Amino acid sequence: MNTAPDSENKIHDDQVAAEYGFRGGLVPGVTIYGYMTAPLVEHVPEWLEHGSMKVRFLEPFYEGDAVVVRAEIADDGSIRIAAEREGGAVCATGVASTARTAAPQPLPYPEHPLPRERPVPARYNLLPGTLLGTVAEKIDTTEPDRLLLLSNHILMRNFKLGPWIHAASEVTNWSAARPGEEISARGRIHDRFDKKGHEFVVVDVMLIANGARLVQTVRHTAIYRPARKGA
Q1: Are the C-beta atoms of residues 185 and 134 closer than 8 Å to each other?
Q2: For residues 21 and 228, what is the distance between their CA atoms, to the nearest angstrom?
Q3: What residues pair up with 52 in beta bridges, in sequence order?
Q4: Rg (CA), the chain
Q5: 74-81 — which CB contacts under 8 Å span 24+ positions?
Q6: What top-level class would CATH report for the domain 10-225?
Q7: 169 beta partners
Q8: Of 53, 90, 144, 216, which has the fewest beta carbons less than 10 angstroms from its beta carbon?
Q9: Are 158 and 115 in contact (CB under 8 A)?
Q10: Average pLDDT of each block of 10 consecutive residues along the chain (231 residues)?
């Protein structure tokens, strides 16, 4: 379902989404990611402690679409996940793993203040290496989509975005979050590029529990300025 029709991001609004060539408001990517992680949480719960997933959103889901999630173990031991419409059209793909890796030390992203006034994102202020203002939130649920939502929040709290689209995320879990913990999202700009008329930004985000324990790192890709229909 479309969990964000009233979001500040108007790509989830039917009328605005139509201006960009969509037939309705887009279901948020973090919602689809949550559906795609359900088989991992159920069958390999250790993924929450030490797992990773690369997810790409290829086509939108709309309000009323059924989301069919298929997961299978590949020959290399990875878990391949697809989110499809009922007719079989693949709208999102993911590759997950439960392999352990060493956490980065020391934590490379310091806390940084949020801007007093959010700037409109542009080529001149989306410079690789630029630190983002820290966002801290106390969480009451540790569902995977709730954690990934913090990567959206750090982008939205640092820039005054127009309609924008979540394109992909590379998520690595280092420890499981716990309800009631304060999670701070720290990050910096990794890249900015243009493709097929769209303008993209890539941000690297670290989620840290109670100021000390690394929970998750994310390389988060968004289309911050989509091409309008017919442009």
Answers
A1: yes
A2: 7
A3: 97, 172
A4: 17
A5: 79/39, 79/40, 79/44, 81/36, 81/39, 81/40, 81/53, 81/55
A6: mainly beta
A7: 55, 220
A8: 90
A9: yes
A10: 63 93 95 97 95 97 94 95 94 95 72 96 96 96 94 97 97 95 96 97 96 94 90 56
